[in-house]
Amino acid sequence: MQLLLIIFSILIILATLIPLVKKEYWVFRVFEYPRLQKLVANLSCIVLWLVFPSLDITISSFFLILLVLNAIYIIYLILPFTRIWKKQVLNFTKEIEGNEISLMIANVYQDNTNYKGCLKEINRVNPDVVLLLETGPKWEEETRILENDFPYCIKAPLDNTYGMLLYSKLALEDRSVRFLVEDDIPSIHAKIILRNEKRLQLYAVHPTPPVPNENPSSMERDKELLLIADLAKDSDIPVIVIGDLNDVAWSFTTALFLKMSGLLDPRRGRGFFNTFNAHYPFLRFPLDHAFISVDFKLKKIRRLNNFNSDHFPMFISLQYEEIAKFQQEGLEPDADDIQTANEKKQAV
Fold first, then answer.
1. Contact at 8 Å (CB) between 341 and 256?
2. Who is most buried in 85, 131, 136, 229, counting CB within 10 A?
């Protein structure tokens, strides 16, 4: 039992420390995902050491101290995504007519054929903008009926699991589908005109994940996100970035993206809102995101009903407020962050 506990303890501690290595190879990046799972495993290991104490009190005490310190570190990393933390995006306090926008983000899982379930969920929540990801030509065909209620569309259906369909009730300008890093990985760029005629910039993204069967490195994902961060930072109008980023909300790359873009994460101070994997409750991570500029306050954010996809959809409702930029602020990059971002953007 003592040997098993030692091995278990070492593996948990390594799983926590490996993400500190800022390398793009998937082995280092994939361990950023299971933060809650690591905390549960860590606490379980502490209990096991207490229930089955080692005959050698020195070894037992050594590993207990390491595991307690490791648990404290994981909790420190988790706290910003709990309700006891300060909200990065403030709640709206007064309705401003014409300034609102609601969005639904759904990775539908390309092989999923529950088109009616998807349409039903869209009709139920009735968003202004819908982004459907992993949409091939069949999904484009089966969701075309949405054009009756969402007359403004940008479509990039692809059979490689990186197709995108954007439907909007609000008018769109400067619409484009761009391939920023990889020739078969699109992103959607458009200006949305709110009901009060205010314009905002929307970016919809779905970069590849750092996993062996997709891409052994996070290099392409990181570069695309940082290029979007530059566009967001340089924008002279409010910005919303939505999509399946194939990255968790608490990762080094997501934090770097927020610092370099100046955008805010409405999850911070509210919860995880885990969206993947919908089929396995103990293996869920927050992969589907909506990041917003400091001009917005939050009306509502929630996870929606699943319709046989491996992702839960997300819904977010926002209100543009001129004064908001004086009441909230994002993360600031330091010199190391700027250097790291520049190196990542020059890679590939």
1. yes
2. 131
Among left, alpha and beta (phi > 0; psi -120 to 50; other), residue 113 is alpha
d(CA 203, CA 242): 6
CA distance 250 to 239: 21
Distances (CA, A) of 103 to 33, 122, 243, 258, 294: 25, 10, 11, 20, 17
240 vs 127: CA distance, rounded Å: 15
Q: Is the dihedral of CA 130, 221, 239, 234 positive or negative?
A: negative
Pick from 274, 270, 269, 271: which is nearest to 285 by CA?
274
Alpha carbons 59 and 129: distance in angstroms, whole number: 57
Per-residue pLDDT reduced to its tens digit, 97-132: 999 999 999 999 999 999 999 999 999 999 999 999
CA atoms within 13 A on the CB side of 198: 18
Looking only at the bridges linking them, the beta strands covering 239-244 and 199-205 are parallel
* Terminal CA-CA length for the chain: 47
Contacts of 135 (CB under 8 A, 6+ apart): 108, 110, 143, 157, 158, 163, 164, 165
pTM, 2 dp:
0.93
